[in-house]
Amino acid sequence: MTREIRIYVEGGGDAKEGKLAVRNGFNDYFRALRQLARQKKIRWRVIACGSRGEAFRGFRIALRDQPDAHNVLLVDSEAPVVAQDPWQHLAARDGWEITGLLNRPCYMMVQALEAWIIADRETLQSYYGQGFKLNAIPKHHNVEHIERDSLEPALKAATRLTSKGEYHKIRHGPKLLALLSSEEVCRKAKHCRRLFEDLNSVLESS
């Protein structure tokens, strides 16, 4: 029976403030799952690790030091995903050693967190308000097909004339994440949907 869920996530940079913002953003984004965890008396933790390499390192350490927890890795895919298994993608793209990890929980933001943000156009427009250029945001039924290198430029082009200024990954990303509709993101990003479905299954079965 699961008593703790620990999610090791990429993001936040090197500063404590950035990591705290990312942690809070993901906690708010996962609010429905957190509520279910609370009902089940399951401890819930998001650990913002900075770089994707540090997230992988933290996850590996947790497998050793927190063996009774349900340890989860969540990182950007950084590229289109062809492999069915996230571990296979990460091994091929990043050269990560995945021996013994194929049955461990691993999920990706495809192709980056900004794809999730772009998925919820209504929240974007509400957050930035006047001056926001909605037509600069790719309108795609599957945001995972949007090339990674076009995600941030699209957000910056859409937000440049707003009072909040152009999109900034650390200043704006976590705040937007906290406001996103997970249902809307899951509808447009199958890897996000898989993450929610799997965590919900773990919680329901505990």
Describe this structure in words.
With 206 residues, the protein is an alpha/beta fold. Helices cover 50% and strands 11% of the residues. The chain has helices at residues 16-29, 31-39, 52-65, 86-94, 113-119, 121-128, 148-159, 173-179, 182-188, 190-204; strands at 4-9, 43-48, 70-76, 106-109. A four-stranded parallel beta sheet has the order 2-1-3-4, sandwiched between helices. Helix 4 (86-94) links the parallel strand 3 and strand 4. Helix 1 runs parallel beside helix 8.
Pick out its properties.
206 residues, alpha/beta, 50% helix, Rossmann fold, single chain
Q: Structural class of the helix and strand makeup? A: alpha/beta
| Rounded radius of gyration (Å) | 17 Å
Number of separate helices = 10
Strand count, sense and closure of the main sheet? 4 strands, parallel
Instruction: Classify the helix fraction into a percent range.
Output: 40-55%
- Quick one: how many beta strands? 4
Topology:
Layout: E1 4-9, H1 16-29, H2 31-39, E2 43-48, H3 52-65, E3 70-76, H4 86-94, E4 106-109, H5 113-119, H6 121-128, H7 148-159, H8 173-179, H9 182-188, H10 190-204
Parallel strand pairs: 1-2, 1-3, 3-4
